[in-house]
Amino acid sequence: MQERRAATMGISEETFFFDPRSQGTLQQQIQEMVAQGILSGRFRVGEKLPSSRKLAAHLGVSRITVTLAYTELMADAYIFTRGKSGYFVSPDAPQSPKFLASHVPAGNGVDWSRAMGRRFSNVPRPDKPADWRTYHAPFIYGQADNTLFDHQNWRNCALRALGQREFDSLATDAFQQDDPILVEYIARHSLPRRGIIARPEEIIVTLGAQNALWIAAQILLTQRRTATVENPSYYGLREVLTPTRCKEIRVDIDADGLPPDAIPTETDVLFTTPSHQCPSTVTMPLARRQALMARAAKDDFLIVEDDYEYEMSFLKAATPALKSMDHDGRVIYIGSFSKSLFPGLRLGYMVGSEEFIREARELRSAMLRHPPGHMQRTTAYFLSLGHYDALLRRQGRAFHRRRNVMTAAIEEYGLRIAGSGSFGGSSLWMRAPDGTDTDALAHDLRAHGVLIEPGGVYFDDGLKPTNYYRLAYSSVSEDRIPAGIARIATALKNAPKA
Amino acid sequence: MQERRAATMGISEETFFFDPRSQGTLQQQIQEMVAQGILSGRFRVGEKLPSSRKLAAHLGVSRITVTLAYTELMADAYIFTRGKSGYFVSPDAPQSPKFLASHVPAGNGVDWSRAMGRRFSNVPRPDKPADWRTYHAPFIYGQADNTLFDHQNWRNCALRALGQREFDSLATDAFQQDDPILVEYIARHSLPRRGIIARPEEIIVTLGAQNALWIAAQILLTQRRTATVENPSYYGLREVLTPTRCKEIRVDIDADGLPPDAIPTETDVLFTTPSHQCPSTVTMPLARRQALMARAAKDDFLIVEDDYEYEMSFLKAATPALKSMDHDGRVIYIGSFSKSLFPGLRLGYMVGSEEFIREARELRSAMLRHPPGHMQRTTAYFLSLGHYDALLRRQGRAFHRRRNVMTAAIEEYGLRIAGSGSFGGSSLWMRAPDGTDTDALAHDLRAHGVLIEPGGVYFDDGLKPTNYYRLAYSSVSEDRIPAGIARIATALKNAPKA
User: Fold this and answer.
1) What is d(CA B191, CA B251) in angstroms, rounded to the nearest whole number?
2) B151-388 domain in CATH 1.10.10.250?
3) Residues in domain HTH gntR-type (chains A, B) (predicted)?
């Protein structure tokens, strides 16, 4: 008999049930259950079946019934026995090529187009291949660079948060409370760097910035309210606004970001990225911020400030957040650790008036209770032990070098930058010649190992320019940048124009 | 000079900003910023201030300006110097008693009662003290018992999921995909134990069962739809249903759970807990399940089955889930790891037709992207290495012993059980004499070190009996049960009747 890899776990008798509708004998039903399990790929070659004693006890039949069923299954080569060690799925058993491939999906009894009262699909998102790491020049945005991340210290912090005493407190559910160590760090270290002073009651920890945007929109918007957003703006914002059925107005940005004069007076909530406009990366000057705050007070609208990427200010210090100029609680501030640590972490935070944050906690609780305690505590340690600041410095130096290589190559190959953050950031906003279809360009480049982000998803559906794209340098190594840019230049030359 | 505890981190110069509205000189402004930081509790005794060189560079002022400000602050005893090692917050500095207590909260410029378009608060939840572990007899529900949990192996699995290669894949964001190892375990081991066969496309991982309920309600319900729920039922369900503005109908359960005949024909979605009714713990018999499925087909409604606690079937094997009888994709099944592992984990899953699960992924993505990769992978290892099954067996044995002690003590002291799961579970549903106010009873008992859960939150607002309560044995040790039950009996004797 040939050698077989031992299966990690046996097949539990608890996975066997008689079907009350079945017509066959008990023995036949047992045979069918085993054969179906094997044919569907659920039971795998070498896996151990339940003993006849256990299966008989579980199903409430006599042991001989199970033994007879197993004997028939052996005769049909579905299973074999290794003497006293029991019954196993045979390598010679008939097999389906794919997991559960033979299972006919259910669902034909329900008219899902009617059954689903609300739809959340069909919001365009950038098409990011899961295997982006295997590409030669992945100019993709928002992913962690494993060559820069401090994996060792992250692991140490996670370990510390896994200690017995810590575990006891983190295992408990906490509908309302966030990790006090994390909140304290945010209040004492993160926010003051943005010029913001906030009490713990004014801070909520969220499942990333996306979750913060979702919560803010759900609380502040209804179908009788108007949300104003920048054009172009973060595609994730549309995923958040559409389900509220609010009226959505887009205001074109200029070289200084959102022009306050262009904000319609009917605005109830303005979503803006003043420190580092998404996706163009431009920074709103102080005078314009003051004008914006004055407009908000005059027309009595709220502002949701998404302050993503302020941590990546390696060229010069980031300007203070809009929230730092907020003296009547009008600004709701959103920060994130997903960009500066890693996106799979799913941790961000939101700062606002106590009344608003109290409501946000209620909504978060109804939606998901709270972000997992272990992730919060691990992050709290990584931050408070200073590893985070060290990471940001290391990241800043690397991004600075990459950016220099990028801009040099871009100049050399004659590409056009449409926006570049004056204080740093992790990407450049690019403009291809008018009429270029950057969706087609991205598709073309992918075949050559280069990933770029077409810009269409950031624009209003109606007036969507096709010739913008984003080039991030957060996940591409310095040495691969020039060839990648050269490849883009070549592809642009060959691109058909509309 | 007295000894001081070294502060973990210095105060970063990046937390200093000039206020554009300020009238004072630059030196005065620096003094104010430091004094305000100390008075507000943000800067703490012994913490190191930025060097005059760094602060001057950051603020764009001459170094002498900073030095003069620091000298003044020393004269006022806010800070002191330790020669070349720099400036520190003085222990003699004026101090506020509490963190940021002196900070006047913002928010008076916004009328929040108008600004918030939707409210999520005021849903009653059980009042669970955060320090429940310190009580003598905490008969509280749904918390992990640290004397039973396999902390060592959980830690090992978490460590394995923190390895470099794992980390790279878990750090990436994954809008749509769940951890394939976790999904495979659920498909091959968890669901078959409930009689359910599902493909990965029919499974979504959620932030606990609450998140699954939220997603299902958001997709299936609108203000033109009707949700039918059991009375009494899980309080978290109301948090999920109210925001959809659907019509909500409650159907009284009997000793066999929900009676299918009583389900109104206008029902669009039924929320039910057939295997272990929440909170009464009764199990719906097979014949009634068949009748329920027939009703659902006839009146064309969907069923959301919350299969919480099936893992705790230590008395006899759990009956197969309702979903196992679903041949036209009408049942949406919800499972959770929060009860059997620990609630702070925040991991559950939902099984349904591929069309529905696809929409659920879209909504989850808009709300929060995905559950953190590390938590998914750690759980996947803990499950697939067999630690989970071992934990369930250990837990089952302990719960069995505790339940025996509970029922003996309940009989001895003449308390009345209103519902007890025939296959096990972690709690008993209790009925005090008519007219008893179990809210007052719980309050009274708390002062004597005993925690019980008043039952009011599980009932309809209108017809709320006041005399039910829940006693869980999942977080109380065997030896403390008799005295706890005795104390409840005493309190009940003394309780005033309505």
Assistant:
1) 28
2) no
3) 24-92
How much is the pLDDT for A464? 83
Reported ipTM: the value is: 0.89
**Does the pLDDT at position A218 exceed 50?**
yes
Report the C-alpha dihedral over residues A218, A276, B59, A199, rounded to 10 degrees. 10
B126 to chain A nearest CA, in Å?
11
Would you give the distance in Å from CA B94 to the centre of its chain? 40
- Residues B352-381 have a mean pLDDT of 94
The residue type at A83: G
Q: Which pLDDT belongs to residue B99? A: 43
| Cβ <8 Å between A155 and B162 | yes
Among chain B residues, CA nearest to A210: B368
Mean pLDDT of B75-103: 75
CB-based contact A196:A219 (threshold 8 Å): no
Rounded to 5 degrees, what angle do the CA atoms B423, B425, B428 make?
A: 105
A271 φ, ψ (degrees, to nearest 5): -105, 120
- Class of A13-89 in CATH: mainly alpha
Inspect the interface and report whether the beta carbons of B146 and A168 lie closer than 8 Å: yes
Mutate which of B149, B367, B370, B385 to test chain A, going by most A C-beta atoms within 10 A?
B367
CA distance A109 to B303: 13
A60 and B CB contact within 8 Å: no
Strands B226-231 and B269-272: parallel
CATH entry, A132-142+390-494, from 3.90.1150.10, 3.40.50.11540, 1.10.287.70, 3.40.50.150: 3.90.1150.10
Q: Are A451 and A470 in contact (CB under 8 A)?
A: no
- CATH code for the domain defined by A151-385: 3.40.640.10
Q: What confidence tens digit (pLDDT) does each residue in B221-263 have? A: 999 999 999 999 999 999 999 999 999 999 999 999 999 999 9
What is the distance in angstroms between the Cα of A472 and the nearest Cα belonging to chain B? 15
Question: A151 to chain B: which residues are within 8 Å by CB?
Answer: 164, 167
**What value does the mean pLDDT of chain A take?**
89
Distance CA B360, CA B190 (A): 20
Q: If pLDDT is split at 50, 70 and 90, which confidence band does B395 have? A: very high
Contacts of B219 (CB under 8 A, 6+ apart): A116, A117, A118, A120, B356, B359, B360, B363
Phi and psi, residue A391, nearest 5°: -60, -45
A3 in contact with B at a CB cutoff of 8 Å? no
* In contact, A318 and A275? CB cutoff 8 Å: yes
Q: Which CATH class is domain B132-144+390-494?
A: alpha beta
pLDDT digits (tens, 9 = 90+) for A366-394: 999 999 999 999 999 999 888 998 899 89
Using DSSP, state whether A418 is helix, strand or coil.
Answer: strand
Torsion of CA B418, B460, B348, A166, to 10 degrees: -80
What six digits make up the tokens of A317?
């210090």
**What are the residues whose beta carbons fall under 8 Å from the beta carbon of A291, sequence distance 6 or more?**
A260, A261
A14: nearest CA partner in chain B: B193
Nearest to A12 among B116, B143, B193 (CB): B193
Burial class of A70 by CB neighbour count within 10 A (0 to 12, 13 to 18, 19+): buried
Given a cut of 70, whether residue A100 has pLDDT beyond it is: no
Q: What pLDDT shows up at residue B297? A: 95
